[in-house]
Amino acid sequence: MTSNTADPRTAPGRLTALERRVLAAQEAIEQADTEHAHWVLQHAYATLREQFPTATSAVVDTGLRRTLSAWTVSVNASADPLWTAAEAASAIATPNEIDEVVEGASWQIDTALQYYPPETLPGWSPKADEPGRYVLDLTAVPTVPDQDRQDSLPAGISRAVQETVDSWPWQVALAAREYCRGLVEARYLPLEETAEHDEVRAVLARTVAPADRAEFATLTAAHWEEGINYVHGLALGAVEVWETSEGYGPTYSLDHIVPIFQCSLARNGVSLREVSEAFGGDVRLVALAVADPSGRRAAPAEEPVRPLPKFYQRLGLPQNIVVTRSDIDAAYRARVRALRPDLVPTVCAAQRTAEKDDFAQVAEAYKVLSDPDARARYDREISPF
Predict the structure, then answer these.
(1) Which of 80, 137, 197, 227 could form a disulfide with 175 if both were Cys (CB 3.0 to 4.6 A apart)?
(2) 1 to each of 4, 8, 144, how far by Cα in Å?
């Protein structure tokens, strides 16, 4: 006997909701494809520009080949060829390093073509009278999709992040900002968290403008690594307050934990948890908060950035690794005895207030230096290399 009751799973409302979910999923997949092709293509451009700094264009053959659907035919500076596949093929010697770089870029371009036909890619134009060949504008750097996502970040989060970057050693901050500017400007792919860091400098250096390379030449691979780790740490929400033990996010890698000053959180009206949850693992959203297209975003004059506290100096200790825990304990006890305002009842109110402030600073220094993990992170900040 057949029931006349409609199956709720096929009701119009249910189908409509399911269709909306399918459509949303399909749009998400298409957006992911667009971004993947975009990033891969820009990475290929950066690879060629590093090998050929004066290059302005390349010619790619998209005719079917046994292994690749795209093959770089030439790399050019205006009308002058800098490299040609014909010359490389006619060379008696085995392929050299330059040939291998161009081949690697060809593989990256081939990946982009798996998602979109060549005529739809930015900066591509058909080569006259040569079917299947396209001229690539290597100077074209299209903007990243969803640039306006920065507007979704509370202003306090962005300011706190900027102040945090300002507190890092200048080389680390420079590396982090260049990494983030490169992501925003689509000059290369985001590095995976498990990237081979000995390749970091080579990947990023090729994207730095020649006029700026003197400044970046002082950066070591370790500077790049620490700056990038901190950027990924912000994305992961791995943050902690300098002056307390409060922390959020994954702790499996100390290299990624980002220290933030309590005064910066208070000044910008945000909590540490809000900073931890602001980015949801999206490195490019962090890049929008950190990057400064003009080169350097200065902190407001009325809100000076707080320098790293001199914890060793507060306890009267030398700043070096030979200072032991017993040295720290003894120095702390001596400073406390000297600063306890309640032990000298005849001092004036102004002096009593000043000594209370000094006592609080000494207590803060002892809290950090007496904790092995906190001290290790502090030592890395004041002298990371």
Answers:
(1) 227
(2) 10, 19, 60
